[in-house]
Specification:
Length: 301
Amino acid sequence: MQPNFLNASNHYENFPVASWFLPKKTRDATLSFYKFARLADDIADCADISALQKIELLELTQTCLLNKSQETNKETSEDKQVEIIKNTTNNLSFFLSEHSIDPKLVCNLLVAFKMDATFKNFPDWQSLFNYCKYSANPVGRFLLHLMGVKSLSSTEREAIFQLSDSICTALQIINFAQDFKEDILNSRCYLPMNFWPVEMKNNGFEASLKLNSKKKNELILKLVGEGEKKLIAGKNLPKLIRQTSANHRIRFALEIALIIECGMDIVKQIKASPETVWSTKPKLRLKRTPLFIYNSILNIF
């Protein structure tokens, strides 16, 4: 029987993935990147294989991405796992080459997925932020490279990267809040240990499932609150992008502004009813899409 990451279902995201704001050529590259990231994530999350097997598959993914022409022996080349990995990485490699993006940027994602495969608890916020440096921040930087950030001055680039990293880290932490129960069931807890109540410190993060409602809510609010702070810290990125000379700067600014709006919508839902995270994931209120778009337009000026 094939491991379940080969049959992973479609993933729902609470933020736009290559919306129509982006130029068609950029959307195709973004979707290819997204498929690569989801494949690697599915490998790290796969319950049917050992941690060592996960690491080996992620290493293979990196090798294929860095050297798409690598030859494998006949037996390995017929393996369905390798076929899917090579097809996904080859597709992404085409876009990396087309947009002159260093594959090592994408490989940073694999560092985080390897950390997931051999998960260790995070002692404090800084250690979690370091994880997000690999798990989330490359996503924003990839999009910025598609925009042509390399053509900007070093001062502009650094300012843009800093705000982008803040937004990406924010979205990652907000996801940790909304997926808290699911992550616990998958033997992971992304809330830093210095915020764990005594029950979790004494009995492990699985004890979170047996906490009273007040303490459960506090865990969720701690995560989503930190995510909100990071999101607010990066909110001026759309305006900064609009003021540059980058290609399609208005469209990229709108895309990022829309992502921020969607992130804030999830934050508001979780803060209003943190207890619901323990029974169902919050989803974007699509009927508010016109408001999201309106606010996004305002946010770039």
